[in-house]
Specification:
CATH class of the largest domain in chain A: Alpha Beta
Subunit structure (chains A, B): Homodimer.
Function (chains A, B): Catalyzes the transfer of a two-carbon ketol group from a ketose donor to an aldose acceptor, via a covalent intermediate with the cofactor thiamine pyrophosphate.
Helix content of chain A: 40-55%
Keywords (chains A, B): Calcium, Magnesium, Metal-binding, Thiamine pyrophosphate, Transferase
Structural class of chain A: alpha/beta
Protein name (chains A, B): Transketolase
CATH architecture of the largest domain in chain A: 3-Layer(aba) Sandwich
Enzyme class (chains A, B): transferase
Oligomer: homodimer
CATH topology of the largest domain in chain A: Rossmann fold
Chain lengths: 691, 691
């Protein structure tokens, strides 16, 4: 392959080269101004970006929310300046002043692309591998939405998802999970451009990345377009045309030079992540024949880049199409608009189903596993909520994420319950993509322990304010015989630590129903439902209980003459109630506080918090997991009964005894504390001989 | 492919079929007795296990620690009963009584295989994908150790690593990371048996796993032996012989039936994870022609299975080989024995290097980033510690995990600093495998935020009590412009929550050196070193400081008439010291407590803890991250100044001001608390307008 030096392009492609160079110069100048950032990728992928954005991408800079726009994802998110340059030049509401403030506080041009901050940015990227997985989710959503809403002659949902990605994304395991699914699902409107520049931060990738990537993607069932010169516009055009003709997802392998245009840095790892410096920038300008000052774009170039007219035309054409659709299928059109409205709330039908689920749970007072109670909620909510897109990472029958009448999504079919296979991280990142696309409300299940595998995906849901729902079952040693590899200990608390995640650990069927209701009502962040394998007793009742649960913590038992407060979540609420009975028999009145969601409780006002957890009571918290976060609520004179070591393989009931998560032990601790003994030193710890 | 019905095998293979059936029956009977477990995989892979274990595996049941044994990993760890049956029948110290206690409390036969619990179990598996990655680490360790110690005619390190794995492992992204590296590294002694039974928990895998797996592994540079009948002993023998002749890692694709032998469950998802039930067990016994009672093995079968004689012979032959090596290369032999001794401590040379590093740091009082201070430690320790196997997930120049004179491990070469590529989880699980193998002390680096990607690998280090070292740099908003995707907030605390992980967040070069010392001295669990990108001032000195740091928390500043205690870790220790100076100017005496390792501090006796953090002082903790875990130390009348929301993209110094991690704010809070104002309500919070 011979490289086509961008600087000497001529004839019909001269303008294209100049347009691409505008991206290069903006990127290098912005990184230089910030003295921070990554010029290498933007300069290397500038020609590809020109080919895609100026000639193929369907978008309307005047309306970044246009539902039927093509989606564009920079999975190698450190190349953010490429995206900002594209958005600015295309005509999005991203003025040059913001490019000058690249990576400065509260600019519209943060270090990595952030959805919700910059108009036209479709997803937040940077953590490698997640962008391509988000894109798979977007393409899945497009396919499902088209299948559901399009009618013959009325293709109102018909757009592509384009991704830029690099070696880093391809090394990450997540790319395997997501791209395997894209192939299995046959997502033919997904087109990924692989920036095959042979360089990652540590240098020449051959030393740690020997994959035959085209062969790998063919094994996933993708169309692979090999060995495209990423600096040859004609070759890129041919590749994109071929991609559009494919019936499978497409990987276009583009041979590029990182930092292309920089005489001394191009093709080196040094081009990746630092400013070129004034001298090299001058040399690069010279090599590119670029004479304009930093952050100045010559008028002909600006004109050539503007996508406003083309975007308005495309959008207008679609509006006409949609108007025809609206006339032919008014109900469908209304529903499609409802579904794809940004931050769409729940329908009345869904709210009614949730109300029924809550009322039924409270009325039936069933002793069930909360994972089963969750499925009972889905039996109501599923049929009432067409936007619901459930799923599980190959644990459907254990997570109980399916419901009567659900339609399993397998292979190239459609459906509303996704079999993600054993791919927890892939599931999370794909759900994020589905949510970003719009039209669906995704939720997915796995064992709580394996939330670890998905962890940064959950974090990205939270950072992007996406109300994705995570159903994490088998939430403690209560899972029993599978043993410590499968028993969560630290997971409830460590999920609580992620900002903007609401972690619910309901104590019975009613709390489970309310947890679902509150989680589905969220519009600005994810919820995790931590559910038991084992059956739990109904914990309490009362007409006002539903509202109380929704505040994150509430008093379940409030005897006269209280001296003790027992705080607990989930399966330990029953333990606390039993302990309170034991104490009552000794004449000690104990309040029981259920804490289904510590995160929500912490958002209540101080008066409510003090009302529920009064400082004058001796307080003990009980949770079959890490103790650390509970000290905030019990104070130094209280105690926390939990588990700060790994579990064991044995039947669950034996484990609760072994680890001392019992009413007897709680009652004993309360008596000790009331007798003035200091905490943490006098506890008759259960026999925890380590092996 | 025609299945060879195991029950009608005849001729030379009749005994082999019977031996395989012994595995099947033990597995189904043990699962039945426990009424819990997974019969499907053991019954499906029994013939493969017979072929490998009775005819090829080099091991000595009388000495499970024999250094040159072949390693055997059940990556599909739910098939634990297959492994227990193999170990029992081969002659390991695993009596039948323990098989009867499958999945019972403190048995030697927990639900999933656990290293350190059961003789002969090489690694703890169950979390899918990690076993194969551990195996890659073992094979890497074998290769490196052989390269370092073998001499012509003296192949004292020469063994293979075998892995069983299933569809679940292959769907997990981790398998991509590990197997890509195995191919790049050319680990020719790694042989994986793929249990291609077409079934995962949700059913027929075709609906969610459409990969051409052989094609995928060829793309990694593996030898793939396709379409082997996993129930045909002759075909398996041929495949294993071919594998041994390969110059690359080998994947043997075995077509099997899950639950093979069970007339009604074989080939179904129902065979996977539940007991067959008495009726089906009777039918299976009949189909297999197995008449012995549960947990009884006919003498000829037991005799056929015993590997004691073969193992003793192989081990004896190796002992002779090693004796000859010892005569020829006494120094090498001594060093090899030192390196491969279980739980080998540090050498005198390493201890001396650590002592030098600690003393130098304290003497030089340099203001450096702790990541740089860490590299300074490695400059001392690296050359003195041949067992050290460093590495980074493509961030060598940022993590500063290399040292002068390190030898980079790339491609098929050897070395002592591994370029893992952008594969955080793979790095963790491979390091676990290296540690389990013995001969090396692995450490690896990435950005702290991306500890999320590796999280369950860190957990497995802890569960397996492996003293792997994680170097997590860029440990807070101090990383600056890269923004919230790259800025850790909850990570320090969430790593602290994992049992048996020691998380060090040193405040200066001296604390960094001691953190390395204490982490390297551990023999029973991992350590995480959380290091800054930005320079930090030297925090204090004194001859006794080194010992104090090692206790996890200590008093750095103790003025007369103390009223306030400021607790901090890492980069916030400097903030606390500055705040104490501000308070001193107001006549308020403030103690400063540095808390480099909360985990170690919590293991100190109560007297020491109260001595360092006295209850009578008004206490404020400061850490640029989640606040939750600090309340235990400051009490309800204290306060915690931290960050419970996501970061921002901006220069680091601006971010510390934005988030209020400043001496001014700390001093102001201290004054407020002393004035009797209640915590958390009166704080003049910094302007944190959310976008």
């Amino acid at each position: 392959m011979t490289m086509n030096p961008t600087s000497v392009a001529s004839g019909a492609n001269a303008l294209r080269a100049t347009c691409a160079n505008a991206l290069r110069v903006l990127a290098m100048d912005a990184v230089q101004a910030a003295n921070s950032g990554h010029p290498g990728m933007p300069m290397g992928m500038a020609d590809i970006a020109e080919a895609l954005w100026r000639h193929h991408l369907k978008h309307d800079p005047a309306d970044p929310q246009w539902m039927d726009r093509d989606r564009f994802v920079v999975s190698n998110g450190h190349g953010s300046m490429l995206l900002y340059a594209l958005l600015h030049l295309s005509g999005y509401a991203l003025p040059m002043a913001e490019l000058k403030r690249f990576r400065q506080l509260h600019s519209l041009t943060p270090g990595h692309p952030e959805v919700g901050v910059t108009p036209g940015v479709e997803t937040t990227t940077g953590p490698l591998g997640q962008g391509i997985a988000n894109a798979v989710g977007m393409a899945l959503a497009e396919k499902l939405l088209a299948d559901e809403f399009n009618r013959p002659g009325h293709a109102v949902v018909d757009h592509r998802t384009y991704v830029f990605l690099g070696d880093g994304c391809l090394m990450e395991g997540l790319s395997h999970e997501a791209c395997s699914l894209a192939g299995t699902w046959g997502l033919r409107k997904l087109v990924a451009f692989y920036d095959d520049n042979g360089i990652s931060i540590d240098g020449d990738v051959k030393g740690w990345f020997g994959d035959d990537t085209p062969g790998r993607f063919e094994a996933y069932g993708w169309t692979v377009i090999r060995a495209v010169d990423g600096h040859d516009f004609d070759a890129l055009d041919r590749a994109i045309a071929a991609a559009h003709a494919s019936e499978k997802p497409v990987l276009i392998c583009c041979r590029t030079r990182i930092g292309q245009g920089s005489p001394n840095r191009a093709g080196t790892a040094k081009a990746h992540g630092e400013a070129l410096g004034a001298a090299e920038i001058a040399l690069t300008r010279e090599a590119l024949g670029w004479t304009a000052a930093p952050f100045e774009i010559p008028a002909p170039v600006a004109q050539a880049w503007s996508a406003l007219a083309r975007g308005a035309a495309a959008h207008g054409e679609w509006r006409e199409r949609f108007a025809a659709y609206e006339r032919a299928y008014p109900d469908l059109a209304r529903e499609l608009l409802r579904r794809t409205r940004p931050a769409a709330g729940l329908s009345e039908e869904t709210e009614a189903a949730l109300a029924t689920a809550c009322a039924d749970a409270e009325r039936l007072r069933a002793n069930v596993a909360t994972r089963k109670a969750s499925q009972d909620v889905l039996q109501e909510v599923g049929p009432a909520t067409p936007e619901l897109l459930g799923g599980s990472a190959d644990l459907t029958g254990s997570n109980l994420t399916d419901w009567k009448g659900h339609r399993p999504l397998k292979g190239q079919g459609t459906g509303n319950h996704v079999h993600y296979g054993v791919r927890e991280f892939g599931m999370a990142a794909i759900m994020n993509g589905v949510m970003l696309h719009g039209g669906f409300r995704p939720f997915g299940g796995t064992f709580l322990t394996f939330s670890d595998y998905a962890r940064n995906g959950v974090r990205m849901s939270a950072l992007m304010k996406l109300p994705v729902v995570y159903v994490f079952t088998h939430d403690s040693i209560g899972l029993g015989e599978d043993g410590p590899t499968h028993q969560p200990v630290e997971h409830a608390s460590s999920l609580r630590l992620i900002p903007n995640v609401d972690v619910w650990r309901p104590a019975d069927a009613t709390e489970t129903a309310v947890a679902w209701r509150e989680t589905l009502r969220r519009t600005d962040g994810p919820g995790c439902l931590l559910l038991t394998r084992q059956a739990l007793p109904h914990a309490g009742d009362g007409t006002r209980r539903l509202d109380a649960i929704a505040r994150g913590a509430y008093v379940l038992r409030r005897p006269a003459g209280e001296r003790v407060a027992l705080l607990a979540s989930g399966s330990e609420v029953g333990v606390a109630l039993a302990a309170a009975e034991l104490l009552a028999a000794d004449g000690i009145a104990a309040r029981v506080v259920s804490v289904p969601c510590m995160d929500v409780f912490e958002r209540q006002d101080a008066t409510y918090r003090r009302h529920i957890v009064p400082r004058h009571l001796v307080r003990i918290a009980i949770e079959a997991g890490s103790t650390g976060l509970w000290w905030k609520f019990v104070g130094e004179d209280g105690d926390v009964i939990g588990i700060d070591r790994f579990g064991e393989s044995a039947p669950a009931s034996e484990l609760f005894r072994l680890f001392g998560i019992t009413a007897d032990r709680v009652a004993q601790r309360a008596r000790s504390l009331l007798a003035g003994e200091t905490s943490r030193t006098t506890d008759a710890a259960p026999a925890l001989a380590d092996r």
